[in-house]
Amino acid sequence: MASIHPGFVSISEICSELKIQASYSTENNFTGAIVAGYKSKKAYMAKIPANALCEVNEVARVRGVGLKIFDAYRPVKAVHFFQQWAKLPENNLELKQLYYPSFTRRELFEKGFIAQKSSHSRGSAIDLTLFDLKTGKDLDMGSGFDYFDEISQTESPLITSEQLRNRMLLKEMMESKGFRNFSKEWWHFSYRPEPYPNQYFDFDVD
Fold first, then answer.
1. Is 186 part of any domain?
2. Residues 171-184: pLDDT tens digits?
3. Which of 13, 90, 185, 194 is catalytic?
4. Which is the most buried residue in 1, 79, 184, 199, by most CB within 10 A?
């Protein structure tokens, strides 16, 4: 069992209605492998942003939608894992087509899609989407999680009006509780002010 920092909490323990997909704890992500540091299908955050996320979920319920978490706290070792992955030869063109068709692995870092140091490791960032509470289906956002391309920019001109409305709904609800969107990724939000603005944590997700 991992030693969790006392300032962090498991999101599902304080807000059980959220869906936790935890993509990096599976092979269903852009690396095609379980990412270092992800030993369980859980999601952690620092306590203050985690509580704010629960408040977003209450707002979402009124709108008939729920929150589905792709990633939250990310160990430093996972960021290093991504960096090492970027140095390896391209060996899975099918995976590349699914996640980063227009770029090389190294370009994902050079163009800022993947950070050398991640706010996720400070416990203040979250990657998520919305799902319909009645049907259980994800809302159509126009691109998938970790699809590194122009269409994933929050206000991309390449998406439909419905897809834009869905993205704006997520953005509006998150921003109402103190989160800010990263304009290159509709799914990525960071809480402000950060509880640990200068600390990067490395305990496992377990």
1. yes
2. 999 999 999 999 99
3. 185
4. 79
The answer to whether position 1 is within a domain reads: no
CATH number at residue 18: 3.30.1380.10
Active-site residue, 185 included: yes
- 1 pLDDT band, cuts 50/70/90, is very low
Q: Cα 24–78–149 angle (5° rounding)? A: 65
Task: List the 19-20 sheet strands across, edge first.
Answer: 19-20, 65-71, 125-132, 185-191, 179-182
Instruction: Kindly report the number of other CB atoms within 10 A of residue 38's CB atom.
Output: 23
Total structural domains in the chain? 1
Residue 204 lies inside a defined structural domain of this protein:
no
Q: What local confidence, expressed as pLDDT, does residue 3 receive?
A: 78
Residue entry with tokens 């990263």: 182
Rounded Cα distance, 127 and 176, in Å? 17
- What would the pLDDT profile of 140-173 be if each residue is shown by its tens digit? 999 999 999 999 999 999 999 999 999 999 999 9
pLDDT tens digits for range 193-203: 999 999 999 99
Asked whether residue 89 carries a pLDDT value surpassing 60, the answer given is yes
CA 199 to chain centre: 19
Q: Is residue 21 part of a domain?
A: yes
CB–CB of 149/45 below 8 Å? no
